[in-house]
Amino acid sequence: MYLKNLSLVCKLYRLIITPLKCFHTNSRHNPAFQLPSFLQSSSIALNLHQGKQVHAQLILNGITTANPLLLAMYLRVGSFTDAKNLFYRMDLGCIKRWNLMIRGLVKMGSFHFALMFYFKLMGCGVSPDNFTFPSVVKACSALNYVRCGTLIHELIMLMGFEVNVFIGSSLINLYVENGYTSLARNLFDKLPVRDCVLWNVMLNGYVKLAELDKAIEIFEEMRKGETKPNEVTFAAILSVCGSDGMVNFGTQLHGLVVSCGLDSDSVVANTLLSMYSKCGWLSDGRKLFDMILQADLVSWNGMISGYVQNGFMEDALCLFSEMISSGVKPDSITLSSFLPAVTGLGSLRKGREIHGYILRHGIPLDVFLKSALVDVYLKCRAVDMARNIYNQSTKFDIVMCTAMISGYVLNGLSNDALEIFRWLLKEKIRPNAVTLASVLPACTDLAAIQTGKELHSSIIKNGLADRCHVGSAVIDMYAKCGRLDLAHRVFRRLTERDSVCWNSMITSCSQNGKPEEAINLFRQMGRTGTKYDCVSISAALSAIANLPALHFGKEIHGFMIKNSLGSCSAFSWNSIIAAYGNHGHLKDCLVLFDKMLKNKIQPDHVTFLAIISACGHAGKVNDGVHHFKSMVEEYGIPPRMEHYACMVDLLGRAGRLDEAFKAIQSMPFSPDAGVWGTLLGACRSQGNVELAEVASRHLFDLDPQNSGYYVLLSNLLADAGHWRSVLKVRSLMKERGVEKVPGYSWIEVNSTTHMFVAADGSHPQSKHIYSLLKTLLLELKREGYVPQLYLRMNPKEIVS
Predict the structure, then answer these.
(1) Distance of CA 707 to the CA centre of its chain
(2) Residues near 391 by Cβ (< 8 Å), separated by ≥ 6?
């Protein structure tokens, strides 16, 4: 009777499936084996309706439906309700039914229900077996329920299943995935059999948590045993070498990979490529890349990003072009990695070409690619293009918002940067450390110290105050807003200080008129063991340039020679050349310039500006003219506005005003107010009225509201006795509404800002202040000080 009914079901099965060509039967097969095969078929798993038809026919034909294969079918197609209804009609005293239900729910991703059925199992008095626990532990792992997992682990130990390979593996995976590597390692050491998969789980766990020493330790332990490492093992351990810069160990592993015959595996080859790129061994990385017979997209991406990350933008551009020529289509990862090279080359045209390529080929614009495009446009000063991409986006993340904020700050749009920051806070997008470090310069540009303080408070609340780059940004903000005291306080509270933090504080002191403190900090930096870099040297030299103590500069110069820092950037050389020049040591300047050339450091426009300025201070006009011509003719550096201003000052100081005027006339662009102002100042010192009037005519057109130029010309004319011309200058000032803006200064005492304006009596303590000033002036006059009037007076006006 059973075989008869079963035969009917199998006939029904053939009627349903044959038209779909999903399952083929053989008439010679026993029908008793066809029903299990049918219910377990992967093709039926795609069609719940077909399965329900079979279930219905089973019921109509009087065949028992409390079949575990039917339950498995419902679980496989994801029908929890049908599976649950069928399950409760089964024998619940059988652990196999519970295991099937729990395992099916885990495969469906219904982890909460899987745990619920496990606890129901326990409530029904059914004892779990070794097949129950792997699925239950997997559910705990998926939900990050470590506490629940440890309780289940305790029961596993009581039942003696802890050393079961499958249960032990699932528990180790639970602990590793949630960062409990010590618990995982304790269990790992207890297991009698440890296959390669289990070793890889432990190894990847250590790598994920950046416990690099332990990762290397377990790899070496694995090598001593009988288990051979596979491609997953090498991919994990090679990533350790890349992140920790252990290139020597990585090259040894490369040899081991070759000896194991895994060098042709794409995953291992790409990980090796990444390691060489991250460690800066790009020549070895390129050799490996060229040896790959069929480089896949990951290989191309790894090599391109390696070039970009190491600053080889031209090589990245060539490789990208080679990739396109070879027929490999770039994806969003390729373009996100390559676009910073476009930024580094400053090529807006290339950026637009790539943007067009993305649109033409329909490459998905994910948030990373959009952020990269925004970054390119903003750094190439194409703000409108960046804003269009940003505004057209439907999804925003912190990376894109940060790119917009830093780009706006770079382009001087600090208000827009703060607007985006306020918007992301309103949208409850949590800013990260990079975002906060990017928005702080906007507060600096706007001198918005109150907003900066609010951001600093947010940084402290979010536990980011100890991040070096964030701390450096806070220090810079307070220093540039005139609160060097707060900058010092933040600096002292940093638990870790890298060279960037020290450099920021040294530069802040130097720029805020505290060169002595800058030098003291520079010395403290050395005592703490923090290595000096080119920025440190340059910041210290800039401070020394403002001190009447050249011996400090000589000490640093000696340090540079002793520690072979001759390869520092041109910026550092420029700083030390300028420091000697500002103290009138032209000979030392020129010696340093020769050393700079011997160290193969190419001089730039700043170098020559410092040398020409030093020649001016030393009165060596011909030397200054020589170096100006050398800059243009030998080094091909086109002179800028500041070079011409320096040449005018050089010639003007020597009284060679006609040559200074000819230099201005030879300029390939229109002189600005700075150049004409320098000539006017030279005319004032040399008493040349004719050229002064020429210079002043240009100045009154270029900067008509600058009272200083009127005063300078008026005083020159008064010295020459041209009183009618003096009256004309005064009348012109009145006609144009030019007024001398009163000088003012302020000081903060006990959280109150006191402002002082020239000839102002509004301050509540002004009587006491003026009384003290009068006393000081009397003392100054006794020492020989002669006050000068703002505008010289006609003797007739004085008499009248």
Answers:
(1) 45
(2) none
Q: Which residues, at least 6 apart from 629, have a Cβ–Cβ distance to it below 8 Å?
A: none
Q: What percent of the chain has pLDDT over 70?
A: 83
Amino acid code (one letter) for 400? M
Tens of pLDDT along 234-273? 988 888 887 666 788 888 889 998 988 888 888 889 889 8
Which part of the chain has CATH 1.25.40? 397-496
| Burial of 510 per CB tally in 10 Å (0-12, 13-18, 19+) | buried
Tokens representing residue 100 in the block = 């099937």
Do you know the residue count of the chain?
800
Q: How far apart are CA 522 and CA 520, in angstroms?
A: 5
205 exposed, middle or buried (CB, 10 Å; 0-12, 13-18, 19+)?
buried
Tell the burial category of 403 from Cβ atoms under 10 Å away from its Cβ (0-12, 13-18, 19+).
Answer: buried
The Cα–Cα gap between 683 and 705 comes to 21
Name residues whose C-beta falls within 8 Å of residue 452's C-beta, 6 or more positions apart in sequence: 440, 443, 444, 474, 477, 478, 481
Phi and psi angles of residue 490, each rounded to the nearest 5 degrees, phi first: -65, -45
pLDDT one-digit tens code per residue, 505-514: 888 887 777 8
pTM, whole model, 2 decimals?
0.57
**CATH code assigned to 397-496:** 1.25.40
